[in-house]
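Protocol step 4 of 6: structure prediction from sequence.
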Amino acid sequence: MQAKLKIVLAMLIYGSIGAFVRKINLSPSEIAFFRAVIGSVFLIGVSCFLGQKPAYEAIKRNLPCLGFSGAALGINWILLFQAYENTSIANATLSYYFAPIFVILLAPLILKEKLTPVRVVCVLAAMAGLFLIVKAGSSSQGITFNHPLGICYGLSAAAFYASVILLNKFVKNLSGLETTLVQLICAVLVLFPYTAFKDNLSPAGMNPHTIVLVLIIGLVHTGFAYFLFFTAIKELKSQTVAVLSYIDPVAAVIIAALFLGEALNFMQIAGGLLILGATFLSETVAVSMNT
């Protein structure tokens, strides 16, 4: 039960990140950079506190894969935060949940997995759901959105996160926490030159309010949430984790409706159900094939 509560809490934290990002007066790349830095420091501190020594040899063997996946993780965050800026939290989150669909499409090429009839149905259902969301649009209090652009950013973020998922399948002899820590450090190394060149890492927008929100994103939404997730999944079946992970998009939609005034219409709800249903079915099939 404790492990399930950890997963639920982690998903609720993940689901609230869009509402916090919206309130931060920094560029998406700056938010992603500071998130990676603070999250890395938090996880290093946790590892030291728990007395966990890094598996240096295993990290060295997996470093090329971890480097590429860390870079993809950082780019994924930038694109997701761009999506939050250009469309509703619900649209951005549901577009982002297209990542498992991209995994299905790429798995036959990269992992040599078969594209089964069930997975084809999942892809078609998710595409139908995305079509409904694009057609529906949405409303929010005092914000003018460019929904097609925002959804494109969300899908691009999903594509990069799908690459992280696929690359992680090649990582051997490392725990999820170790893998994530190295990926965050690699993300920092990739994001720093990009952010410094593009945004100059200017302190102009770093007022006390922004600093507090950035710390929350880094400490709570990254370090603490990742710690909860990776310490809990050891004790749970993969299918249980897959089911509980859907608290994230549901929480994101509810929080956006309550605190940002983003109302959902019928087409959005139908589209969201198609996407989440398709990803859930695809993950359930994947779990059953591996057991």
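Step 5 (inspection) to follow. The CA atoms of residues 132 and 271 lie 5 Å apart.
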